[in-house]
Design brief:
single chain; alpha+beta; Helix Hairpins; five-stranded mixed beta sheet
């Protein structure tokens, strides 16, 4: 039996999915190029949504100047077709194109030949479509809801109610509430099946509380490590050997814009500290009020130092 390799044409090869490179950095798996705005060059809409604001503004200005320059050349090719324009003046034709493209309304210069009116009609149509597209893109960029959620730099495994418990902190950095906030925690590690096949497996971690009606200040997320937990029986060394990583996903409704917002974070095996505990950030004032000290939000101490 002979195998024949299928040959793809150049057009077919353009639609093939390029190889994806994955590397491990600080214990975390990273897909090279994922999330980078320049990775969307084959998808112009996503490119214009993800490109940084300075690049977006430069791109708009470049497009605006280029299209006006092209129409200025088109008017120059028509000869003396614009009233009160200096013959052969590129600047006069350029500024006349600016008036036409933006639908400003003509002053001293206006078209006087059929050729000029045809070019003006084409440019006016392009201007209407261009303004609509740029306005929509700018609105889409401004209206994208974002969350400002702070995650502790490390997670800890410490006794809680006499049970080993995985704990990490989150805090809302805005002066508003995230309504109906939901927290999901996943554990990802390397596993080998009974057939000896390698697999990167994902586990759901059950939390003591996975949702809250209003996420305003801080939230200590806890997972009890019992016999049903994927972390049961594991050690710091086994977490490193299996390339274990925690993936955190937070979603809720921002009360200001009434839209769903998302926040993600991850912890590598070396960012999960055993037998440590977070420093208490809740304090009392002299008049009996409570306040939160965010300056120590990331601080932890070994258990032997807290006893």
């Amino acid at each position: 039996m002979k195998l024949r390799l299928k040959r793809f044409s150049r057009k077919q090869r353009q639609h093939l999915i390029p190889p994806i490179q994955i590397k491990v950095r600080d214990g975390k798996f990273e897909i090279i190029g994922m999330g980078a705005w320049h990775s969307y060059w084959r998808d112009p809409y996503h490119l214009l949504l993800t490109i940084p604001w300075p690049g977006f503004l430069i791109l708009i200005c470049t497009f605006y100047v280029t299209i006006n320059a092209l129409f200025a050349i088109a008017y120059l090719m028509g000869g003396d077709c614009i009233v009160n324009a200096r013959p052969g003046s590129f600047l006069d034709m350029f500024f006349f194109s600016v008036q036409t493209l933006a639908s400003i309304g003509y002053g001293a210069m206006y078209p006087k030949t059929t050729y000029a009116n045809i070019v003006v009609t084409i440019e006016a149509m392009i201007g209407l479509v261009g303004i609509a597209v740029m306005t929509g893109l700018a609105f889409a960029r401004f209206s994208r809801p974002t969350a400002r959620v702070l995650f502790s730099r490390v997670a800890v495994i410490t006794p809680h109610n006499a049970m080993p418990t995985l704990i990490f902190r989150t805090a809302n950095q805005r002066r508003n509430m995230i309504l109906e906030a939901q927290m999901r925690v996943y554990l990802m590690r390397d596993d080998v099946t009974l057939e000896g096949q390698f697999i990167r497996r994902l586990y759901d971690l059950k939390l003591l509380r996975n949702q809250t009606p209003s996420f305003t200040l801080s939230w200590s997320v806890m997972h009890v490590i019992d016999e049903f937990s994927p972390l049961y029986g594991m050690t710091a060394e086994s977490l490193t050997q299996t390339n274990t990583m925690l993936i955190i996903s937070l979603s809720g409704i921002d009360e200001t814009v009434t839209q769903v917002v998302h926040a993600r974070h991850s912890y590598a095996a070396n960012e999960i500290l055993w037998n440590n505990q977070f420093v208490d950030i809740f304090h009392h004032t002299s008049d009996g009020h409570r306040y939160i000290d965010y300056n120590r939000f990331h601080d932890v101490l070994p258990l032997d130092e807290m006893s």
